[in-house]
Amino acid sequence: PMFDNHVMPYLESLSGVKLVSRELRVLGIGEADLTYQLRDIIENQSNPTLAPYVTAGEVTLRVTALAKSEAEGLSLMQPMIDEIRLRLGEHLYSENGEPLQALCARLLTEQGKTLALAESCTGGMIASALTNFPGSSKFLLEACVTYSNDAKMRRLGVQADTLARYGAVSPECALEMAEGMRASSGADIALATTGIAGPDGATPDKPVGTVYVAISSTAGTQVHSFLQWGDRGRIRYATVLSACDILRKTLCT
User: Fold this and answer.
1) Distance between CA atoms of residues 11 and 165, nearest Å
2) pTM of the full structure
3) Which residues pair with 55 in a beta bridge?
4) What sign for the dihedral angle of Cα 86, 60, 251, 79?
5) pLDDT of 97 above 90
6) What is the crossing angle of helices 171-185 and 149-156, to 10°?
7) Would you say 253 and 245 are in contact if contact means Cβ atoms under 8 Å apart?
């Protein structure tokens, strides 16, 4: 507050200009691919400028303009932001720095949709991320950490035959988890996660990082597969982002 309220206004009064910035958040594309797609903008920038920053599981783009006023800065930045949106499409999920979990919470609240969660490999991390925001009780009905096969069968109605034939880490199991959670909770949308976070549990056809995320709604049930990389903590956090991104896209369609 001391810097924002006193130092910055003083420096701006000396220079006669100010820095105006916007933070764009991107998911589902790596920094190298993103930089390649935007290489001409990055190489030929002057005012405004564009700078990519890597954070856990996603990339942030900071667009900054040097201008005499906030309005002038926004006017300078808008063509660049429009071009970035055009090139990145659905990978660009926020143009004002809003975190993905906050965006999902806001969309659920604004649309009056309810959500239920069935988590295995993420162990309640999605529920924790969404309940960080005030008012989450309006949309989150319940969340279950069904880690064992017994819990998946007893709480979610996953069939014993499904587990025997395909295993707990499978698209078939993820689908039944999501559908069972939605049916028992009465929620508009149910998300389910199952995967191998490591370091143990891998098989030749299911390496560490194999994850399935299922989403069930009135539009049906879809299962998405991922091969996350990194240690146990990163794989689990990346799965939280993947699941929230699937939820975001469902709410935006």
Assistant:
1) 67
2) 0.92
3) 58
4) negative
5) yes
6) 40
7) no
